[in-house]
Design goal:
The protein is α/β, with parallel strands linked by helices. 38% of the residues lie in helices and 16% in strands. The chain has 15 helices and 16 strands. It has a 6-stranded mixed β-sheet, sandwiched between helices. The longest helix has 31 residues. The chain is globular, with a radius of gyration of 29 Å. It starts with a helix and ends with a helix. The N terminus is likely disordered. One of its GO terms (biological process) is oligosaccharide biosynthetic process. It holds the Pfam family NodZ. Keywords: Membrane, Transmembrane, Transmembrane helix. InterPro entries: NodZ (IPR008716).
């Protein structure tokens, strides 16, 4: 109304003066329109809270929608709003992919028993943290059970309370595997399979190559590609790869159950030459060979991932290496049969857990092991069959190793008794990443956001 009065009062003024007032009035109208619109948008995005009920330091509660895949419906659950402050097991990983995931599954088990969240650090590709890049932070749907705040337990590589074990089919003693750890592993690996940033690429590959009319046999061959160190010292290298591969092919073709349908072989290996060699052996039998194109080290240069924090430094090559290796593992877990051609934590992690947990099996014995000399193959119908009736010495044979790669919780395992004394309080500023180093004091919930905040603070 005030603007309208100004316009009317100046209608009888000189043309130039009237024009000036008209322009000023229109500018004021435009300003007020923009101001009111901005205020409306701000209020809609930031509803005013009742200060008597909440404060900046209070523990808030959000409503989040969580999809329950077992029921195929969306339900509403309450989630603590201070998700960044939830107490957590902060796990620093080491070594190859299978080792990292199998040990991380132990940390996940401990975190679940403590009622803590789980965070992990795998090193950097340039300034990008590897674990966060591959899987992102633990999703809200996995954190509704966490009741503790502002504390953490640091774990490095081996997880306390988890013990080495042997399988001994002739033993009359108790089966070494613990059922709730087996169940925990299945949940852990399914969760990570679903969180993988390359999930769509995995699904596209499966749709194109894995068919119900064909038995897909996944085989993992840990040959080392000239790797030295512990791998060489334990005698894990294949002594005569060509002869060994011929015997492996004979074992595959001799399994009558697999011949009821056409078969195809999905090959996962750290040594590129093996793919072409096994293809030449199976081509005459009409067996197709599948594999994922990967960034690999040159022949004889060993493998991609070594000790803790020692990952490839260059961004694109580093990211692609992790993605393709993980894609290999996930595709193995989707195969009808998984063959552990050489003993490795790679097959004893996600592939073993998820292949054995599948409800509708295409074959009666979906997990097999070949002994070190490739003279025999044993297959198992379930995880308990593998653990209770299998034999560690069969798979390891002349390899200088006595125990499985997996760990199981010790008898009477109590997470608070094992880890309670190591619980630390998080600092007021939370956990700031160390971009150049492995030794993190504690880990942030979201590495990407924490790194950005750290850079802003450093430049401020």
């Amino acid at each position: 109304m005030a603007i309208r009065s100004i316009i009317l009062s100046h209608r009888n003024s000189s043309p130039k003066r009237s024009l000036r007032f008209l322009l000023v009035a229109k500018a004021m109208i435009l300003f007020l329109t923009v101001f009111n619109l901005t205020a409306y948008v701000y209020q809609s995005m930031n509803p005013k809270e009742d200060s008597s009920k909440t404060s900046e330091t209070s523990i808030l509660s959000k409503e989040v929608f969580i999809t329950d895949s077992s029921k195929s419906e969306t339900t509403q659950q309450s989630l603590p709003g201070d998700i960044y402050n939830l107490s957590s097991v902060d796990y620093n990983a080491c070594c190859g992919l299978g080792h990292r995931l199998s040990k991380l599954s132990d940390a996940y088990y401990a975190a679940s028993k403590l009622g803590f969240a789980l965070r992990s650090f795998w090193g950097y590709c340039d300034a990008v943290e590897v674990y966060h890049y591959l899987f992102g932070p633990q999703p809200p749907s996995e954190l509704t059970h966490v009741q503790h705040r502002n504390h953490f337990v640091r774990m490095n590589n081996e997880v306390d309370g988890m013990i080495k074990f042997q399988r001994n089919s002739s033993s009359t003693s108790e089966c070494p595997c613990v059922q709730d750890k087996i169940d925990s592993d299945v949940h852990f690996y399914r969760q990570h399979r679903d969180r993988f940033r390359g999930r769509q690429a995995v699904e596209d590959y499966r749709k194109e190559h894995f068919h119900p009319t064909i038995t897909t046999i996944g085989i993992h061959i840990r040959a080392g590609n000239g790797e030295t160190g512990d791998f060489q010292n334990r005698g894990r290298a294949i002594k005569d790869p060509s002869s060994w591969l011929r015997r492996v092919v004979e074992l595959i073709l001799s399994r009558s159950e697999w011949q009821k349908k056409s078969i195809q072989l999905f090959v996962s290996t750290d040594t590129a030459d093996i793919i072409q060699e096994i293809k030449s052996l199976l081509d005459p039998h009409g067996v197709s060979i599948l594999h994922v194109n990967q960034v690999r080290p040159a022949k004889g240069d060993g493998v991609l991932f070594g000790e803790r924090g020692q990952v490839l430094g260059s961004g694109f090559k580093c990211w692609r290496s992790w993605e393709s290796t993980l894609m290999d593992m996930i595709l193995l877990s989707h195969a009808d049969v998984v063959i552990a051609a050489r003993p490795s934590s790679f097959t004893q992690s996600m592939p073993l857990s998820l292949v054995m947990a599948r409800e509708n099996q295409a074959v009666s014995h979906p997990f097999c092991e070949i002994n070190a000399g490739a003279s025999d193959m044993r297959c198992y119908s379930s995880y308990s069959d593998w653990c209770c009736n299998g034999d560690t010495d069969f798979a390891l044979e002349e390899i200088r190793q006595r125990y499985e790669y997996l760990r199981m919780p010790k008898s009477g395992y109590d997470a608070w008794e094992v880890h309670g004394k190591k619980v630390q309080e998080r600092g007021a500023e939370g956990c700031v990443p160390r971009p150049a180093g492995w030794k993190q004091v504690c880990l942030p919930y979201n590495f990407e956001e924490a790194l950005k905040a750290s850079r802003r603070k450093g430049s401020g």
